[in-house]
Design brief:
Number of strands: 6
Strand order of the largest sheet: 1-2-3-4-5-6
Shape: elongated
Largest sheet: 6 strands, antiparallel
Distance between the termini: 70 Å
Low-confidence stretches: 1-54
Structural class: alpha+beta
Strand content: 15-25%
Radius of gyration: 44 Å
Oligomer: single chain
Number of helices: 10
Length: 507
């Protein structure tokens, strides 16, 4: 049964009015974001509205650029990137010119069994030095240039001169006409290494983006936790003030004991919620310090008042990181088809060699013989070989063609799924914006209900339990509004990651 109290005297009614006023100030008219436990009560953030392009991530990226690049994951990706760059250099080095040097020396002593030499020992010495330079070209051309001299000395009676020298210069060119004659095929190793290097670069960017994304997610989570803590602390303070005022009313006979007991339970409920939130916040801080030791985060209070981020039109799949990787896969599959076709060819090449020789009893004289245009050696020929039973090569070519067709199908699937994910994230962003407006309307309705509940408690029409419930609904609405505003930023972050736009904010 509702207890009807006599009209309260001003000196006794004043404390309850003050309490109601404090309650409405604390739960219904906030505008500041959380900062510390001693700052004024939390208030709802300003309504999201179209504004300038997104800048909310820039302070965080500026503060964490060095820490992110020094993280274990990014260092690991950087090592892989360096290894891929070295592999590309190795692939290109296979086409470097080759230099060869072949010095030799020999000595022999043999028993003479010749009528000319007579009995005795014949002593002979010989030596040679040859220097050659060769290079293979991507066109299937091989070129080599070599020059050298050889000399001999003998005390045999059958030789014209005790010392004799021969010198030569040779130029040889070979051109593959079938197998190995394609420039694109010959350079496929360099192309594969370049693709691997680009894959490693993209992986590095992806890992770096992932680190920034992890940090931004933790930043937003801490901001939400701090907002919750501020709101819960204010709830405890207002509930305790309510309890104190109703205890005073009970003492003077203006309230019921059941009302006071309900308020005490409300204070306990608020304190339990606050304790849970504090433990969760402490756990989040420990996790943050483990993954980001020593990093000082920018101010988080401003996140609750960030204007609506600007979302550009959806980019083309071909310019995305995933699209570029798919294009490289298609190019690699096409090279495999061409390589398999090349391996099915027979070996056919044309070989040309031109040589000049000179001989004399003096080393310089052997080189001077090169002036004689009448002496040279020119050879031109074809080289052909065929392997019977080329079924393996034909099957390999067919398999490569199947792999290319599969890669094309997977590219279409990947492009479709990428666009689907993009549409999902953009719809999620629009939904997050809509939830902000919905939560603002809901918070306004809950505040209006709290005003009515406060008045009805004053008039003794409802119990204090109804007032506590109304206060809790306002608190929940405010916390949901903070989360809705931060969810807009989370949706923007996910969309930036999907479209590879997060690193665009780095200077």
């Amino acid at each position: 049964m509702t207890r009807h109290c006599p009209p309260p005297r001003p000196s006794r009614v004043g404390p309850l009015c003050v309490c109601a006023g404090l309650l409405m100030v604390g739960l219904a008219t906030a505008a500041d974001a959380p900062a510390s436990a001693t700052t004024p009560p939390l208030v709802p953030p300003a309504p999201a509205a179209p504004a300038a392009p997104l800048t909310w991530l820039t302070p965080l990226l500026d503060a964490s650029r060095t820490a992110a690049r020094n993280s274990l994951e990014v260092v690991d990706a950087d090592l892989s990137r360096t290894s891929a760059q070295l592999s590309a250099r190795v692939a290109a080095a296979l086409w470097n010119p080759r230099l060869s040097l072949s010095p030799s020396y020999g000595q022999s002593r043999s028993q003479s069994n010749s009528v000319v030499d007579g009995p005795g020992i014949i002593r002979s010495q010989s030596g040679s030095v040859f220097l050659g330079v060769g290079k293979s070209f991507a066109t299937g051309t091989s070129l080599s240039l070599s020059a050298g001299s050889s000399g001999s000395r003998s005390d045999g009676a059958g030789v014209i001169s005790d010392e004799f020298y021969s010198s030569s210069v040779s130029l040889a060119i070979s051109q593959a006409l079938l197998r190995g004659g394609s420039r694109a095929i010959n350079l496929s190793g360099i192309s594969d290494a370049a693709d691997a290097e680009q894959d490693a670069l993209d992986q590095f960017d992806s890992v770096l983006e992932g680190q920034f994304s992890d940090l931004a997610s933790r930043w937003l989570a801490l901001a939400q936790s701090e907002a919750s803590l501020r709101q819960l602390r204010e709830n405890v303070r207002l509930a305790s003030e309510n309890l104190r005022q109703f205890e005073e009313r009970l003492r003077i006979g203006l309230s019921r004991e059941l009302d006071v007991l309900s308020l005490r339970r409300g204070v306990a409920d608020q304190e339990v919620q606050l304790s849970k939130a504090e433990r969760l916040y402490a756990a989040d801080l420990r996790q943050f310090k483990l993954y980001w030791p020593g990093l000082e985060l920018p101010d988080r209070a401003a996140l609750l008042n960030v204007t609506t981020p600007t979302i550009p039109p959806q980019p083309s799949f071909a310019v995305s990181r995933q699209g570029r990787a798919m294009l490289r896969s298609l190019a690699a599959a096409a090279r495999q088809v061409a390589s398999a076709r090349n391996n099915a060819y027979d070996d056919l090449s044309i070989d040309t060699a031109l040589s000049k020789y000179g001989s004399d009893g003096d080393l310089g004289g052997s080189w001077s013989e090169f002036d004689n245009r009448e002496t040279f050696d020119l050879r031109v020929g074809l080289s052909y070989s065929h392997t019977f039973g080329t079924e393996a090569n034909r099957i390999a070519h067919h398999q490569a063609q199947l792999a290319l067709d599969q890669t094309r199908l997977r590219a279409r699937i990947g492009e479709r799924d990428w666009h689907a994910r993009g549409l999902e994230l953009r719809d999620g962003f629009d939904d997050a914006l809509a939830r902000v407006g919905e939560q603002e309307r809901l918070a306004a309705a809950q505040r209006a209900e709290l005003v009515l509940a406060t008045a009805q408690v004053e008039a003794g029409l409802v119990t204090t339990r109804d007032l506590v419930d109304a206060q809790q609904r306002v608190s929940d609405a405010m916390l949901a509004l903070y989360q809705a505003n931060l969810d807009v930023l989370r949706a923007d972050l996910l969309l930036r990651l999907h479209e590879n736009r997060l690193l665009d904010l780095l200077p």
